[in-house]
Amino acid sequence: MFRIGLFFASFAVVSITAVDRHKIVYKSLQEAAVECGQYTIKGQCLGRCETLITRDWNDTTGMSPAYSRFFHPDPVDECNLNRTQRCLQTKVYTVPRPRTCQRASESIQCYLDQFGQVNLTAPQFVRFTPLQDDQIVLECAAIMGYTYEQVYAWIRESAFQRPETRCIYRCFLIRSGLYSDSEGLNMARFYVLCGGYEEDFYQRVEQCAARLRQEVPCNDKCTLAQRLAIECIGADYQAGNLATNVNSKAVEGSRVQSFD
């Protein structure tokens, strides 16, 4: 079961806040609605537009469990998640797949009716697209004085065994707002990025992070960041394997200069 209340658990080595936003984008549902209004989207397609902007809706897979971050559930209601999931499941069978606007709209209604009180004004983290991940990798390569071709070759040859690639990985995590040396992994953002976790996932990450902080020398910041993300988050982090992201996008002499 996905439990949103665990978002706010405080861990000694795993942080759910960030000190530097870097490339981070936050949007509220209200802001998403205003943006969709500029595109003259109306009716049931408005909800689809809003949740596409917050990157919670996918026409193939439906609504991400991370959409719940826009809601405040009743703390004594232990069945809200189960009701919401059952409501969403009924849409799979009752709404034809081609009717994407209707499916999105009715999925939103499931959360409104079953999950909790919606918060329209609180900005929430918006996950990155694969293209944005690629851009950050390019920027980190340029920041650290490497060409994209060098980074691509290193990753293809030896994953993250080279010191250079480990430091680029750390740069990627920091610039993505997913990690800081002082606060560790930002679990609230990883939750959104990965589309939710099981209830005991946070405890496993906390234990993993504590172990790695004992194993890795304190002055080896790059190795620690890389191992925290790969070993503690692992396959749940879809952008965790930078080799996948850069596999087909190496451009001769590429250097990125647009830093925010």
Automatic annotation (TrEMBL):
Signal peptide (UniProt feature, chain positions): 1-18
Pfam families: PBP_GOBP
Gene Ontology cellular-component terms listed: extracellular space
Gene Ontology terms describing biological process: sensory perception of smell
Major location (coarse): secreted
Gene3D superfamilies: Pheromone/general odorant binding protein domain
Recorded GO MF terms: odorant binding
Subcellular localization(s) per the UniProt record: Secreted
Sorted UniProt keywords: Disulfide bond, Secreted, Signal
Family indicated by similarity: Belongs to the PBP/GOBP family.
PANTHER family in the record: GENERAL ODORANT-BINDING PROTEIN 99A-RELATED, ODORANT BINDING PROTEIN-RELATED
Name of the protein described by the UniProt record: AAEL000835-PA
Originating species: Aedes aegypti
